[in-house]
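Biogenesis of lysosome-related organelles complex 1 subunit 1 structure dump, as promised
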Amino acid sequence: MLSSMVKEHQAKQMVKKEIQEIRRKESCAAANDLTQALVDHLNVGVAQAYLNQKKLDAEAKQLHASATNFSKQTQQWLNLVESFSGALKEIGDVENWAKTIEGDVRTITTALEIVYKNSQEHD
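structure tokens r here:
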């Protein structure tokens, strides 16, 4: 009887150990599944952040290229405006020179007319 009780007790213990082992395996599997789900969820966020970073980098490069191009165009416009300003200045200088020459020619003409009149009066 005692040996049957011991065997029965050992059998119950064995069943409890088997149930406990099954539950331990289920718990490990559930924890593993949870961990995998969390990692997958985090990986989605990380992947999205990586894609966003790549887009930002591409847009930053494009913006830099556009800014460089704009700077070159602005410099070209400045050079063109400076050339135009110089040309206008030269035109102003030529106009001033022409007015000076015109004044000198009038003075000479007036002087010649006076000399001619004086020479006509003395003849």
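Residues 1 and 7 are 10 Å apart (CA to CA).
lmk if u need the other ones
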